[in-house]
Write a structure and sequence with these properties.
This is Terpene synthase. Pfam families: Terpene_syn_C_2. Its cofactor is Mg(2+). It comes from Lyophyllum shimeji (Hon-shimeji). Keywords: Lyase, Magnesium, Metal-binding. The protein has about 350 residues and is an all-alpha fold. Helix content is about 70%, strand content about 0%. The protein has 17 helices and two strands. Helix 12 packs parallel to helix 15. It is globular, with a radius of gyration of 20 Å.
């Protein structure tokens, strides 16, 4: 019997997994979502004088404020605005760090973390190798602006977690930049480890506490079940994003994506890699539901905080899935059509 020959033509499209149908959580939008989203995008647009016209169009098409309105749908308009500003800012950091060399990501991290540690005024450090410019860099000014508003109401635990996890984000971005500088595509395990931090999800989880006006005790945050719920939500948001962003990323030669790694090291075709990541995403949603049943009791007051926090994670899962078809970041203006038929046509290479 003659073995069937393998197709040699490069694929021109792929089919998305149906994660929206798999996710049964209710989709809720903040009543003031549109209003706050417009204010937040204007804040970043106005305070970034160096953005090109193309970058400004991308900023408005991003709809980061709308994502915030899905994921923090019960907070006050004032706190929603702070979180929405951060969400726009986080995507801005992701965009500007993408083309950076390792040394530049170090400088970016230093200026942002300086603003978080010294929120009252710019205090440049002068230590060897950590010298900062006399005039504060724009990413530092933006960070200082939203953080000064945030810490007026954020609890000490929430503040500490935000700073710690944003530092992890920068460390991971630096690792990613080193790999990019060296032309290295990491193995799957190393990639997942770094991707859990480059996603920027962890500081967003701290802001769930801020949005809900709670400050989770350390013994709750460190509990294995809560950590599993945190990580499961991060994995769903991150891995589904690898599927949704793959087309744009492959067109510019970006390899920081699980689908690329599965094709390079694990013998997957494009479609089988997409299906594999889709299965992982579905499993994370199922595991989230199972882990939720295992949450212990710490007494009425703490239990209420924990329950509200877990709903915040749930809102992130469902909100991010639906938003991915609304934003222009992944499918341009065709998101609604892609959501309906799940067909993605590959973009030509631009890099």
């Amino acid at each position: 019997m003659v073995a069937a020959s393998q197709p040699t033509e490069k694929p021109t499209s792929f089919i998305l997994p149906d994660l929206v149908s798999h996710c049964k959580f209710p989709l809720v939008y903040h009543p003031k979502g549109d209003e706050v989203a417009a204010e937040a995008v204007k804040w970043l647009d106005t305070n970034c004088p160096d953005l090109t016209p193309k970058m400004r169009r991308a900023l408005h098409g991003l709809q980061a404020g709308e994502l915030t309105a899905y994921c923090y749908n019960t907070t006050t308009p004032e706190r929603l605005r702070v979180v929405s500003d951060f969400m726009n800012y986080l995507f801005h950091l992701d965009n500007i760090s993408d083309g950076m060399m390792t040394r530049e990501t170090d400088v970016l991290a230093d200026c942002v973390m300086n603003a978080l540690w010294f929120s009252g005024k710019y205090m440049p450090t002068t230590g060897p190798g950590k010298e900062q410019p006399k005039d504060e860099l724009n990413p530092g000014k933006l960070a200082r602006d939203f953080w000064a508003r945030c810490i007026k109401d954020a609890g000490p635990g929430c503040q500490a977690r935000f700073k710690e996890t944003l530092e992890l984000f920068f460390e991971a971005v630096n690792i990613q930049a080193r790999a990019r500088d060296s032309g290295i595509i990491p193995d799957l395990e190393s990639y997942i480890d770094v991707r859990r931090d480059t996603s920027g999800c962890k500081p967003c989880w701290a802001l769930i506490e801020y949005a809900l006006d709670i400050d989770l005790p350390d013994f709750v945050v460190e509990h294995p079940v809560i950590k599993a719920l945190d990580q499961g939500t991060n994995d769903l948001v991150t891995w589904s994003n690898d599927i949704f962003s793959y087309n744009v990323e492959q067109s510019r030669g970006d390899t920081h994506n699980m689908i690329v790694i599965l094709m390079k090291y694990h013998g997957h075709t494009l479609q089988s890699a997409v299906d594999y990541v889709g299965d992982l995403c579905a499993q994370t949603i199922d595991a989230f539901c199972e882990n939720r049943k295992k949450i212990p009791s710490w007494g009425p007051e703490v239990d209420d905080m924990v329950q509200r926090y877990v709903v915040g994670l749930q809102d992130w899962i469902v909100g991010s899935l639906h938003w991915s078809f609304m934003t222009h970041r992944y499918f341009g203006t065709e998101g609604a059509e892609v959501k309906k038929n799940r067909l993605v046509k590959l973009l030509p290479m631009t890099a």
